[in-house]
Amino acid sequence: MSGKIGKILKKLLMYLVLILISCFWVVPIVTLILTAIKTKKDFFNNIGLFGIPAQIAWSNFSNALVKGRLLTYMKNDLFISCLKVPMGIVVEALAAFALTRLNIKWKTPLFIFFLIGMMLPMQIALVPINVIYSRLNLLNTYFGLFFVYIGFGISFGILILRGFFRTIPKDIDAAAYIDGCSKLRLFWSIILPIAKPAVATLVISDFLATWNEYLLASVIINDNAKKTVPVGIMTFVGEHGTDYGYLCAGVLISVVPVMIVYLAFQKYFVEGMAGAIKS
Asked: Is the pTM here over 0.90, yes or no?
């Protein structure tokens, strides 16, 4: 009897700890939503952080989209993300396929070479990128940003896909070759569909990283009409004051595309990460 009570108490304690931890994640979201529906007057009328205003300021959302040009920034970011994410995954998958399924020399040194890219901070590349791009006239262009994003994201993608590819039995390759399958057909029609969980994991993480990237976008893109969401939202912050309701409404709208991508691929996310770590 005492053993059962002890187990129940342990479960209750575990759930209590999980609830407290979840609060640290939920509270910022709640404050963001409550701030987004307040006007400037509400902040001076002693309405608390968690207080609900008498009248919801829906105008904050329309102003963020139209006056704040958030709709333009979202279109720009969506164009870059939809171009970079699939192209980056194809490049990373081809590299991971070569490292795991082809008979090439120095597989491990090549893999380590790719991983070194994860150790290099982005800040040390800002000046060289700016100098090279100014000479090649790639500043203020989407393709300039696209190439840099591919380069900085390739290391993580290879790490995930190489790990998952190694869990796929080599017998599949032998059977495919017996049936007359080429290496390219093996990659595209057999290995890549099997690795769908890992690809979905990369789609989520890569889209999130590309959509939220600020540093490179702020250096390469200066044209206001071509700015991405993180850089564009910074224009909501005024020099002499900031309308936080207007700012939080913009942040809340910018989260929607990321949530859609996550919900679309979430069932594969855990499986993809588990396959990569297991190897």
From this structure: no
